[in-house]
Amino acid sequence: MSHTIKLKKGFDINLAGKAEKSISKAPKPETFAIKPTDFPAITRPKLLVEEGDSVKAGTPLIYDKMAENVMYCSPVSGEVAEIRRGEKRKLLEIRILADKEVEFEDFGSHSKSDINSLDVEKAKELMLKSGVWPNLVQRPYGIVANPEDKPKAIFISAFDTHPLAPDYNFTFKEEEEAFAAGLEIIKKFTDGKVHVNISEDREMLKMFSQAEGVQINRFSGKHPSGNVGVQIHHIDPINKGEVAWTIKPLGVIQIGKLFLNGKYDASRKVALTGSEVKEPQYYDTYAGASIKNIIKDNIKSDHVRYVSGNVLTGERIDADGYLGFYDEQITVVPEGDFEELLGWIKPTTSKLSFHRAIGLLSFLNKKKEYVLNTNTNGEERAFVMTGEFEKVLPMDILPNYLFKAIMAEDFDEMEALGIFELVEEDVALCEFIDVSKHELQILLRKGINLMING
Amino acid sequence: MNPIQKFFDKIEPLFEKGGKYEKYYTLYEGHRTILFRPKLVTGKKGVQVRDANDLKRTMITVVIAMIPCLLFGIWNIGHQHFLAIGETATFLQKIGIGAMQALPIVIVSYAVGLGTEFTICVIRNHPVNEGYLVTGMLIALIMPPSIPLWQVALATVFAVVIAKEVFGGTGMNVLNVALTARAFLYFAYPTDISGEVWTYLGDAAVVDGYSGATALGVAYDTALNGTGSVVSAFGNYWAEGMYSFSNMFLGAIPGSIGETSTLLALVGALILIITGVGSWKIIVSVFAGAWLMGLGFNAIGVNAFMDMPAHYHLVIGGLAFGAVFMATDPVSASHTETGKWIYGLLIGVLTVIIRVVNPAYPEGIMLAILLMNVFAPLIDHYVVESNKKRRLKRATV
């Protein structure tokens, strides 16, 4: 099928600080961490290790009391250095002091033909205990997939349109074999299709565009055309009572490596990006890496914000903070905690805006790379403007009404207006352009939690 | 650090919790944020950088779009004044008279309106919203030039308190706030906002044959007891060429301060559409609705007003101004994109019906918009329902 879905709505945030396609030789991070907060599904995390225990890559660290067979494992080998808790003893981080060379738990390797003939229950069992399972995310709700479910389809977006997102052509160019093996495993979990969604606007690796035994869908358009939620909406939308799974290419590769090599291999290439980075480029590391060594001597000033992920959906971390489980990108932008004389009315070409209100001239120069700081550029207000969110959400959804339904905690309305189809990243652009400066991603998660628990 | 910032920092403790003027913190904050974009930063999770636009800039964009109408209105007050008293005057003399009439109205509208807003913000302890920047200008522009200032003040207080704040403030109102002010005056002091109030005369004597009627008044009279067509009645008006189509389009006619010029309302529309602040769908559909209804009346053709060529409806009265600046108010208009088409179209249709059929009140756009403000949520309801139905239907396929 060579049908291309063209998305006209959306907005590309063109930031300065794109990563060069080279791998840095910076010293390896010394510590790594698993953060239960990366997984919105975990409500009652249980610890399996204590400070001082030594672990290997693939040793379970925690599990969720509500889904006891899904293990969250150590990405590297070493010693459990610290277990950090927050208010009410909420579990925040399990820090591992890494060995020089990573030792792996052995889960037994499989040949290609073994993989093809492997029973789905056996595959599931291995994936659950080895740490790769959380790569499977379910829709609705965007939480770690429930192993008991049989999804109607599985969706993989093979490109990332977020600001300064890593280039999969570069990061995955040597992972062909693992990706193919991972796909073979994934196919076993659904009677429906496995969809690999590729971009019409950019080059794609053959392993994506010519993946075998899957449905290839083509998408074209600005961000969020790379968001898997948007793609699902146009291919095979999720209705009440249905479950679909999504997985990032990195997750497929990890699954492939688990079966081919018998290891939980959490390695990944991470892009260090953003205007405040001296030499933005890629780093070879593992999930949950401390960014301390990665950013060392490579940052322009000390008044910056470190973000695990991208500037639309990421999370603020400290200079010695840790990369999120799903993240393949670190972004460094200037902090914006300063007042600006008449900043709300001054004409400017240096600030980026989706809108064209008086004095905002960024629309004249679409190619320009912008340096954006973390200032909110205004205070929170009531919803006043209408019709704006619809311009950046390429779905048949009325976001304004959905947000109001969430505020009103109206379950029927939330459901009828499409909360099953959305996760945070899908409304991130709405949050970015919102002139009333609401925290819409947090609001959406509040609604999702109501749906889960209500 | 800027000396103004230093000053604010110095007085800040007075307004903070426990300070002498703790109650007035919103006042302090309101002033500081007008001078400085605040130093607020994004949260831990979610977007880390934000769009440069905010509500303040959005609102000021609308105010700027109205400036051409205000400037023209100032000139036009003087122009109409000297025309009515039969004197010739220079451009500056016209501006002088116009400014003396119009600026006090603008000042009273802003001073009283902002005063009311600030008072309520202090009482209810919520931050000052930007909505009144636009409302203040709108109220001034839809007043007749001869309106007594105390009435402007009274109408403003009524509109801000009853139309906006009792509903929860900016973003929560059902009715357009500025139109509520005008409707209040229309019902409370009808003699000062209808009849021969559209030209500022002062103490001067008018020329022979002077009639203070607006184009709508002339059209209505022709239908009631005149002979011949409305267009010929326009041609026989006391001042020759006053109600020619082109002159009505340009706006050198009696009327409210800012709403006589269709041309400059369209300039405002252009600004609103290019900046994306006003909905082009509403603007286009109001004009379309009025024109279609005009054509419809042409087809019925019972009296002279119905026979008036449909395109005249687009330039007489406040239709253009209403379509561009009142109907597009995002809070009181339809919120859905499909709804905006229906909303605008019905405003246009109703405006012409009210003008032509209703004997009591010739200007239809005000009542049409207020009426549709009330129906906008209903329109939206059906648009949202159809979206929900699409979603449900999909599930069974």
Automatic annotation (TrEMBL), chain A:
Residues 119-263 form the NqrA second alpha/beta domain. Residues 5-98 form the NqrA N-terminal barrel-sandwich hybrid domain. The keyword Transport applies. It catalyses: a ubiquinone + n Na(+)(in) + NADH + H(+) = a ubiquinol + n Na(+)(out) + NAD(+). It comes from the Bacteria. It is an enzyme of class 7 (translocase). InterPro entries: NqrA, NQRA_2nd, NqrA_C_domain, NQRA_N. It holds the Pfam family NQRA_N. Transmembrane segments: none annotated. GO terms for molecular function: oxidoreductase activity, acting on NAD(P)H, quinone or similar compound as acceptor. Its EC number is 7.2.1.1. One of its GO terms (biological process) is sodium ion transport. Residues 270-317 form the Na(+)-translocating NADH-quinone reductase subunit A C-terminal domain. Keywords: Ion transport, NAD, Sodium, Sodium transport, Translocase, Transport, Ubiquinone. Belongs to the NqrA family. NQR complex catalyzes the reduction of ubiquinone-1 to ubiquinol by two successive reactions, coupled with the transport of Na(+) ions from the cytoplasm to the periplasm. NqrA to NqrE are probably involved in the second step, the conversion of ubisemiquinone to ubiquinol. Composed of six subunits; NqrA, NqrB, NqrC, NqrD, NqrE and NqrF. This is Na(+)-translocating NADH-quinone reductase subunit A.
Automatic annotation (TrEMBL), chain B:
It is found in: Cell membrane. Its main location: membrane. It is a multi-pass membrane protein. Its cofactor is FMN. One of its GO terms (molecular function) is FMN binding. The keyword DNA-binding does not apply. Its EC number is 7.2.1.1. It catalyses: a ubiquinone + n Na(+)(in) + NADH + H(+) = a ubiquinol + n Na(+)(out) + NAD(+). Keywords: Cell inner membrane, Cell membrane, Flavoprotein, FMN, Ion transport, Membrane, NAD, Phosphoprotein, Sodium, Sodium transport, Translocase, Transmembrane, Transmembrane helix, Transport, Ubiquinone. GO terms for cellular component: plasma membrane. InterPro entries: NqrB, NqrB/RnfD. NQR complex catalyzes the reduction of ubiquinone-1 to ubiquinol by two successive reactions, coupled with the transport of Na(+) ions from the cytoplasm to the periplasm. NqrA to NqrE are probably involved in the second step, the conversion of ubisemiquinone to ubiquinol. Composed of six subunits; NqrA, NqrB, NqrC, NqrD, NqrE and NqrF. Belongs to the NqrB/RnfD family. This is Na(+)-translocating NADH-quinone reductase subunit B. It comes from Marivirga arenosa. The lineage of its organism: Bacteria, Pseudomonadati, Bacteroidota, Cytophagia, Cytophagales.
